Amino acid sequence: MPPTSRRGLLFGTAAVSAGALLTACTSNEPKNAAPAAGNAPAADDKPGRPVTIGFAGPQADHGWLNAINQNAKRRAEKYSEVTLEITEGSNDTAAQIGQIQTLINKKVDVLVVLPADGKALTQVGLQAMRAGIPVINLDRVFASPQAYRCWIGGDNYGMGLNAGRYIGEQLKGKPNAKVVELAGLDNLELTKQRTQGFDDALRNYPNITKVARQAAEFTVESGQAKMAQLLQAQQRFDALWNHDDDQGVGALRAIQQAGRDDFLMVGGAGAKSAMDAIKADDGVLKATVLYPPTMAASAIDLARALGQKKGVGGMSELEIPASITLYSAVVTKDNVDEYLPTGFS
């Protein structure tokens, strides 16, 4: 696990689609499904027993990270019986451990934790579980399954796979097609997973060759600098996959400055700015592959269900699942209106 840093926290390791998951976890829409087996209670909007949820998330210094915190807060506000004890947010491992221990000492009913470093925070997850406080491990996974009751997070391999499939389908009729990749931080496992998924997808398209790859740092500045290098080195290519929409803002600046419009671009994560550009359809950005920050809202739903000893609406089991992996949907101009409400700033 790399040393803790702002960029090191951006995403976790890794199916249910984001929209389907929200419906399944919250049952906010009228129920049409048959009653759960054994008359199991299901999570719903009707107020239940009071639940205090402790939330220890990241420092909101990146669009996706800020969206994680906002999704958690907004979801908790939907429930009159839910009290959310939220920490200030920290990307420092020692500080976050202290914040979680404070929540344990307050005897919250359930904990939701997006750890700065999954491995380093495993012991405090174990501490909470041993104290009888169930833990929802959000995105960056703890080193031991005994440190959490349920894991919910994104699918990094799936992001790369779906990006590669989309680009492959767009270029499958083009002989000797060339693609380039603007990755994230190479010392993060998630970056390796996204690249592996992308490469695996491209193997199904023998007419396509990946001719270049640059690793950026999930920032606007790094995206602009690394994209400028790619453009200078590659005079012709047909598609670009960029791992992160925040660094994609910089990448688009470099593309505009170079006056290039001879390729299509696919982003990653699902920022509102990316979706707006896709809807306008007046530039190179044609799609983005989701890594939904709505997972934080779903984590609150799961925590509420645990605290009230309910199951998950739409499922027959008495208990919530042990793990939930979100689906990395591809957003294009054909479906962007559906996903715009989930776009983050």
From TrEMBL:
Occurrences of domain Periplasmic binding protein (ranges): 53-309
Family membership noted in the UniProt record: Belongs to the bacterial solute-binding protein 2 family.
PROSITE patterns in alphabetical order: PROKAR_LIPOPROTEIN, TAT
Compartment(s) of residence: Cell envelope
Region feature Disordered, mapped onto this chain: 31-50
Bias (Low complexity): 31-42
InterPro entries noted in UniProt: Peripla_BP_I, SBP_2_dom, TAT_signal
One GO CC term, this protein: cell envelope
Pfam families on file: Peripla_BP_4
Stated name of the protein: Sugar ABC transporter substrate-binding protein
Sorted UniProt keywords: Signal
Molecular function GO terms recorded: carbohydrate binding
PANTHER family per the UniProt record, alphabetical: D-ALLOSE-BINDING PERIPLASMIC PROTEIN-RELATED
Protein's UniProt keywords contain Signal: yes
